[in-house]
């Protein structure tokens, strides 16, 4: 089957017919509605009923059952207005609290960032101090450094030895007593024993 392309002119013609038919249907429906309304008024007038007139409030309240119903509706409306006012006040309070929370979070984030920067500076300064001290120990004569390492706590001394160049660390270890050298060697060997292997 060969599909023949539709030209733009033919497409506009189909659209125009479609729009015109919709307008015609709307006009006919409007005429029918007006006719039916007019017929309804005519029938109502024949029966003596006047359409379009609304009962007054006085007529509604003159009946006891309607007066009670009207009072109930008015009471309900007043309760709804009060509830709406309460909800509006709560929403305002929540909006204010939300603004306060956002402001406190912003301040907290700012303080946290400053604290992080301070800790980074402190860590950097401590690292610089330790590196400088390691350089001092490496520059010392091995026998003089060994005397200092003999007096240090084993964990502390092992930390310095681990940072020193291997030849400097070997010179210091050779100047230590065998017991201290052994204790420091064990600490150095076991420093990474608890680090996960995977």
Describe the structure.
The chain is elongated. The protein is built from seven helices and no strands. α5 (154-163) crosses α7 (178-190). Among the domains are: 80-131; 140-190, no CATH class. With 198 residues, the chain is mostly helical. Helix content is 83%, strand content 0%. The longest helix has 76 residues, at 64-139.
Total helices: the number is 7
Q: How is the biggest beta sheet arranged? A: none
What is the global morphology? elongated
Portion of residues in beta strands equals under 5%
List low-confidence stretches.
none
Q: Report the average pLDDT across residues.
A: 80
Which structural category do the helix and sheet elements fall into? mainly alpha
How many individual β-strands?
0
The secondary-structure element order is: HHHHHHH
For this structure, the quaternary state is single chain
Instruction: Give helix % range.
Output: over 70%
Could you give the distance between the termini?
68 Å
The Cα radius of gyration reads: 48 Å
Descriptors for this entry?
single chain, 198 residues, mainly alpha, 0% strand, elongated
